[in-house]
Design a protein that fits this description.
heterodimer, A: 113 residues, mainly beta, seven-stranded mixed sheet, 11 strands, 0% helix, B: 113 residues
Chain lengths: 113, 113
């Protein structure tokens, strides 16, 4: 069966510090991978998606970046965090086209102080 | 503009009671509509999925309905349990094979004993 992992589960970082969130998927190959941010009282916002190694599409201009160094690894990074980067970050995967179900990871709660 | 609006924003019910959550969307054409359940601090988990040609779909005590003419969907929860306390998110997939889903902001349901 497929599983998706995210770490860390929670993170408290000072403004201006770097960020690295990791997501890995097990039990499938060539998944589509997604990074979302969820703000309180708002819908999930798609940040990045990837259809293959090294292929990253950015949806929202921001100081975040994503990379996919391996087929089942997706990393969300920042060189300098802003207060507005605080939120709940979710990684998801799907098989094939978008009408296939997206499976979400457990999420990372990021607080920037 | 493609949008998904959910109501109510929050809801409190007593254990054992039924409730209905609403979802209105402007996404057209669309491929499918899903309802997700998201426990606090966790990733969303899919409850039901309906294509544009389906009117209803059940998953245990959860029943989703879809009216493609009025662009409305509802999620009915029967004989609520304390474990039903969560956010319920309506998600619409536009047609066209693009990877973006359109998320509603969710309804936060609290079931009290």
């Amino acid at each position: 069966s497929q599983t998706i992992h995210q770490w860390p589960a929670t993170l408290v970082q000072p403004v201006g510090s770097p960020l690295s969130l990791e997501c890995t998927v097990e039990g499938t190959s060539n998944p589509n991978l997604y990074w979302y941010r969820q703000a309180a009282g708002r819908g999930l916002q798609l940040l990045f998606y990837s259809v293959g190694i090294g292929q990253i599409s950015s949806e929202v201009p921001q100081n975040l970046s994503a990379s996919r160094p391996q087929d089942r690894q997706f990393i969300l990074s920042s060189k300098k965090l802003l207060l507005s980067d605080s939120g709940f970050y979710l990684c998801a995967w799907s098989k094939g086209r978008t009408y296939n179900e997206q499976f979400f990871g457990p999420g990372t709660r990021l607080t920037v102080l | 503009k493609n949008q998904v609006e959910q109501s109510p924003q929050s809801l409190i019910i007593l254990e054992g009671k039924n409730c209905t959550l609403q979802c209105n969307y402007t996404v057209s054409p669309f491929s499918n509509l899903r309802w997700y359940k998201q426990d606090t601090g966790r990733g969303p988990v899919s409850l039901t999925i309906m294509t544009f040609s389906e009117n209803t779909k059940s998953n245990g005590r959860y029943t989703a309905t879809l009216d493609a003419d009025t662009k409305q969907s509802s999620l009915h929860i029967t004989a609520s349990q304390l474990s039903d306390s969560a956010s319920y998110i309506c998600v619409v997939t536009p047609s066209g094979g693009y990877n973006k889903l359109i998320f509603g902001a969710g309804t936060r349901l609290a079931v009290h004993p």
